[in-house]
Inverse folding.
């Protein structure tokens, strides 16, 4: 068991700072001197028999005793003062630093409160408790060696160690061992390195003193912005390394050169005015700035402020110079241009989406009534071809609307699990006919390609658009190469214009040996209605449609091109992570639907809610012709009233609700939510000119929906109605548009 920790008096005694008994030695000294004087006087009188010696001896003894007493008193006071100062210094050290006093065997004699804050269980566990708190087990032998050296040394010994304190906190502590004046007693001081650093910072880097401790020349050269100092004549006096390396590393700079010579001639006047205002003003640099192009070609932003410096011509005078900070503005302008272009494209997409919705209503009616007319006109009828012409032109308009929706990413996609190699095989003959016999088409399939989940028809359209563009770039002669491969990005990677997220992708590359594109064209290649072809040769929606379809699928489109070096498009589609069983199940479902679609007649009661009269009239007539009982409603409120009446009566039955998505006052999703409160198992088909994603968020996650995009034909409508009524449980799927 360790010795019980004693009070601080042990430390005082160890330092021999205890108050000595000075009175007794002084008294004994005075008595001894008096005895010697008396004895000497007596002997002198006995020998000489002269009484004068008695008086002389007594006087000398008294004078000597007085002198000795004064010296003793002075030494005593000086010792008391030294003792007081030593005690105060020791008390201060005990109040500032964690201190420990041990003997030669490291038994603890004293520990102050600060030391107990570091090692609260030191009284119970002794010095070994300190060793057990070392950071690493390998440090224990080293620390014991340090302690042994310190205890055997005649002078102070120190070392730095890392301890784990209570609560798991790591602390780097400077340990010093100091032998005291009393043999076998040692003073240990534990100084926290973090506390020392903080104390040093507070003492030397306080407000107003921190800047004085820095090397301003290093600070000037290490600044992240380009710094330039101009004299009163706007000549370059000095510059930092950042300015030279970022803007004039190749050209070089020279002292005394007018700064404006490094500015593009078109911007020199503007920069000169800005610097003149800064020289005449005392405002902050942010108030005086401008954009300019350097002679090196880089676009920069310049901030200017004035400063005073000693005149080189007049002794004691001050001149006003200009301090410039220069930032590279090229990347910022590019980002601003991209954001601006993105906002324009988004606004145009919203406009196109709204127009497409209205057009889809009109086209649905046109195509639908053409289908009704064709039912009553045989191919031999003279009107048959006229009706077919109307329908074909309506379908062409529908394709144009789909392109508008594709670039605005609002198209109704029908994603399926497909193999890209199979798609390329299916469209290879069509592609060869499109490009002609003078252009060579090469297709290289990658090994073990993963499957992707895309709209097969839209992906075919993407490939056809890219190949047609490549054909036009070749001018009738050259090669077009299509390659597929698996690509894995371990982290987000910049590939040409796109930042592709980490993941596994199937890459489709379409390369041509044509004329290529300039940088200006490359920056606008995916803009809607932008085309380098002659007026009337294209709509300018081909590549914007490609970008919209791939982006809506979750993929990326990148392009690499240069004049006279050809063009390469790269399409990255994410791998489908599902199982092969899901793909087989989807294929079996398609086969089943194909069998069901042979007979499109049926029976049941259908509530049709559509605010567009022409679409509602066509749909109602088409369904009635197929044998269904149809109740028409022009608004969501009217449809809900009918369902409420049917629920209250308990006699009327509604088998299916077909509702438009976008309607005034009460839209389709709201109607369906209210209807499911009355009839939880009521089947629903949504019809809309918008994509499904635009309203899917308005439904709860548990609701499974069936969606039929506009424009649709009579066959599309009859097929999806029969499939929906024939399924016992609701299955979410998209109707295929013919």
């Amino acid at each position: 068991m360790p010795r019980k920790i004693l009070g601080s008096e042990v430390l005082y005694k160890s330092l021999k700072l205890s108050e000595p008994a000075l009175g007794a030695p002084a008294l004994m000294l005075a008595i001894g001197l008096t005895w010697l004087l008396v004895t000497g006087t007596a002997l002198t009188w006995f020998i000489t028999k002269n009484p004068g010696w008695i008086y002389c001896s007594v006087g000398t003894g008294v004078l000597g005793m007085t002198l000795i007493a004064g010296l003793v008193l002075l030494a005593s006071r000086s010792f008391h003062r030294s003792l007081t100062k030593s005690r105060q210094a020791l008390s201060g050290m005990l109040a500032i630093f964690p201190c420990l006093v041990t003997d030669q065997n490291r038994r603890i004699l004293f520990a102050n409160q600060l030391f107990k804050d570091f090692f609260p269980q030191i009284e119970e566990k002794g010095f070994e408790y300190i060793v057990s708190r070392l950071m690493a087990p390998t440090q224990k032998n080293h620390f014991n060696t340090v302690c042994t050296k310190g205890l055997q040394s005649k002078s102070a010994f120190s070392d730095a160690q890392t301890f784990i304190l209570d609560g798991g906190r790591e602390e780097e502590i400077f340990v010093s061992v100091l032998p005291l004046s009393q043999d076998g007693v040692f003073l240990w001081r534990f100084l926290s390195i973090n506390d020392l650093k903080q104390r040093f910072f507070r003492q030397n880097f306080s407000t107003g003193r921190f800047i004085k401790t820095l090397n301003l020349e290093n600070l000037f050269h290490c600044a992240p912005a380009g710094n330039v100092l101009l004299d009163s004549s706007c000549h370059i006096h000095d510059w930092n390394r950042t300015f030279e390396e970022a803007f004039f590393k190749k050209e070089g700079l020279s002292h005394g050169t007018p700064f404006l010579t490094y500015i593009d001639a078109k911007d020199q006047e503007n920069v000169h005015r800005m610097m003149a205002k800064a020289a005449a003003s005392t405002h902050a640099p942010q108030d005086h700035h401008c954009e300019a192009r350097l002679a090196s070609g880089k676009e920069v932003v310049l901030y200017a402020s004035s400063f005073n410096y000693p005149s080189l011509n007049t002794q004691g005078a001050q001149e006003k110079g200009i301090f410039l900070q220069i930032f590279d503005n090229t990347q910022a302008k590019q980002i601003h241009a991209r954001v601006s272009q993105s906002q324009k494209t988004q606004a145009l997409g919203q406009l196109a989406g709204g127009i497409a919705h209205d057009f889809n209503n009109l086209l649905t009616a046109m195509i639908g009534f053409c289908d009704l007319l064709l039912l009553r006109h045989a191919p031999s009828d003279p009107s048959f071809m006229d009706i077919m012409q109307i329908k074909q032109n309506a379908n062409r308009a529908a394709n144009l609307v789909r392109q508008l929706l594709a670039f605005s990413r609002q198209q109704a996609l029908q994603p399926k699990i497909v193999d890209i190699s199979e798609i390329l095989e299916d469209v290879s003959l069509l592609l060869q006919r499109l490009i002609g016999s003078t252009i060579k088409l090469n297709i290289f399939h990658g090994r073990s390609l993963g499957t992707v989940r895309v709209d097969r028809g839209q992906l075919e359209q993407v490939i056809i658009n890219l190949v047609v563009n490549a054909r036009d770039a070749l001018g009738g002669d050259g090669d077009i190469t299509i390659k597929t491969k698996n690509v894995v990005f371990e982290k987000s990677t910049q590939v040409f214009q796109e930042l592709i997220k980490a993941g596994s992708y199937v890459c489709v590359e379409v390369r041509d040996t044509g004329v290529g594109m300039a940088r200006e064209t490359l920056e606008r290649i995916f803009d809607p209605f932008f085309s380098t072809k002659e007026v009337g040769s294209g709509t300018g929606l081909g590549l914007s449609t490609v970008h919209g379809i791939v982006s809506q699928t979750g993929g990326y489109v990148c392009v690499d091109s240069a004049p006279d070096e050809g063009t390469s498009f790269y399409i990255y589609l994410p791998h489908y992570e599902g199982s092969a069983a899901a793909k087989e199940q989807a294929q079996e479902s398609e086969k089943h639907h194909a069998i069901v679609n042979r007979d499109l007649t049926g029976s049941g009661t259908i509530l049709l809610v559509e605010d567009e009269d022409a679409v509602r009239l066509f749909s109602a007539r088409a369904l009635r012709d197929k044998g269904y009982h149809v109740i028409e409603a022009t608004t969501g409120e009217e449809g809900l009233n009918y369902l409420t009446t049917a629920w209250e009566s308990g006699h009327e039955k509604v088998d299916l609700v077909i509702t438009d998505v976008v309607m005034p006052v009460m839209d389709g999703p709201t109607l369906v939510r209210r209807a499911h409160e009355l009839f939880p198992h009521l089947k629903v088909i949504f019809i809309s000119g918008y994509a499904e994603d635009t309203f899917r968020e308005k439904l709860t996650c548990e609701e499974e929906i069936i969606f039929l995009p506009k424009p649709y034909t009579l066959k599309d409508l009859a097929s999806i109605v029969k499939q929906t009524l024939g399924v016992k449980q609701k299955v979410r799927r998209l109707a295929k548009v013919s």
Residues 1-10, 14-22, 729-738 have pLDDT under 50 and may be disordered.
